[in-house]
Amino acid sequence: MSDLKCCTDKTRTIAATFFGGVGAFLIIGALAWLVVKQPTAGLDAAAAQNRKATRLKVEQEGAAELSKFAVDPNKENLARLSVDRAMEVFVAEWGSSSTEGRTKLLERLEASKRTPSFE
Fold first, then answer.
1. How far is CA 83 from the centre of its chain?
2. Could you report the per-residue pLDDT of 6-30, keeping only the tens digit for each?
3. Are 15 and 22 a contacting pair, CB within 8 Å?
4. 71: which strand partners?
């Protein structure tokens, strides 16, 4: 009997790592292929129509809310403006000079952070 080895331990380790990595990729690829190839249930036409109607209703309510003015009764000095009016207010405050608009903004921020003193 011969005591000759065909490969060294380092070669066997490298080969085992390589074939293990290739095998892992093949297994993951086969699982992914099985998931992708699964048949999917067709969309029910009634459910699709219901989702479409619900989406349109939500969009219409949102559009109505964006286009009107309202004052929040629960919070002091809080109002909701339409988008067009909000842009006009923004341009009026920031259009003339940015330093003046920034100063007003910082003043409003400080006023909102101020806590009442009970002394």
1. 23
2. 778 888 899 999 999 999 999 999 9
3. no
4. 79
